[in-house]
Amino acid sequence: MTVMNSKKTSWIRTLIGILILLIFLFPVYWMINISLQSAGSAVVSPIYPKSPTFSGYLAAIRAQSGPLLTSLIVAIGATLVSLIIATPAAYALARYRIKGSSTILLVILLSQMIPTIVVANALYSAYSDLGLLNTVIGLILADASLGIPFSILILQTFMKNIPQAIIEASWIDGAGAFRTFVSIALPMSRNAIVTAGLFSFLFAWGDFLFALTLTTSEEVRPITLSLYTYVGAYVQDWGMVMATAVLASLPAIVLLVVAQRFVSAGVAAGSVK
Distance between CA atoms of 165 and 175, rounded to whole angstroms? Predict the structure, then answer.
């Protein structure tokens, strides 16, 4: 009787889980559904594309290829800047006795709580004086300001758990501080680095406030802002809008699928018996 109740409960939980999953995935399905239909209203469209067409994707590529490329360059650049700065900073905070390191980590944590719009408004004035408005470099640096603190917090936690015996063994073999960092800490922190890089990329790829505040022309316009301005106008071609949304979602989906095994893996599992 107990076994039957347990199986029944398991089936109920499975069905509830599937129902919740379908609810969350329905907007994604509707986006793909509309993208495969001809121009028209997204409200009165059929539940599935009766005559699928890729005209929306062709139109999206023609109209939004520039913003998509800009977003890709900005996201990759912001990710590289974040990792180049955050990785050695996290290693220093994790492995060396730095006076006030706890205060530094607290300040980094508090910086994550500052609303992005506040930072964007402050950067606008500075960028105006430095001539960085409407530039890819400006967007990269702005988006990196989101990725660097988050990356430091993740990497510092992982690097702090690297066994001291491995570090000392490298010192005995004659490796200096830099060689230990490059040859020991970086390979062992691969999973953490991939995780930090993934989130830094997603922060930059999905950024809207920095793009809205720090760009005023169409020459440098990420896909998030380009899609917003297009939808804000009088829209009749919802197929193109949804096709653009699908294309904008692909990089994030691909990265999440590729990097998922690194995100959950341990940093030093099995290194020391």
Answer: 14
**Per-residue pLDDT of the chain in tens (273 residues, 90 and over written 9):** 565 666 777 788 888 989 998 998 888 888 888 888 876 555 566 777 777 888 888 888 888 889 999 999 999 999 999 999 999 999 988 888 777 778 888 888 888 888 888 889 889 989 998 989 999 999 999 999 999 999 998 898 888 888 888 887 888 777 777 888 888 888 888 888 988 999 999 999 999 999 999 988 888 899 999 888 877 665 667 888 888 889 888 888 888 888 777 766 543 343 343
| Angle at the Cα of 103 from the Cα atoms of 101 and 105, rounded to 5 degrees | 70
Q: What is the DSSP string of 27-93?
A: HHHHHHHHHTS-SB-SSS--SS-SS---HHHHHHHHHHHHHHHHHHHHHHHHHHHHHHHHHHHHHHH
DSSP 100-111: THHHHHHHHHHH
- Alpha-carbon distance of 163 to 69, in angstroms, equals 42
pTM of the complete model: 0.84
The number of CA neighbours under 13 Å toward the Cβ of 202 is: 15
Tally of CB atoms within 10 A around 30: 14
157's enclosing H/E stretch is helix 136-160
Contact 50, 38 (CB under 8 A): no
Q: Using H for helix, E for strand and C for coil, what is the string for 176-225?
A: CHHHHHHHHHHHHCHHHHHHHHHHHHHHHHCCCHHHHHHCCCCCCCCHHH
Tokens of 161: 């758990």
CB atoms within 10 A of CB 259: 16
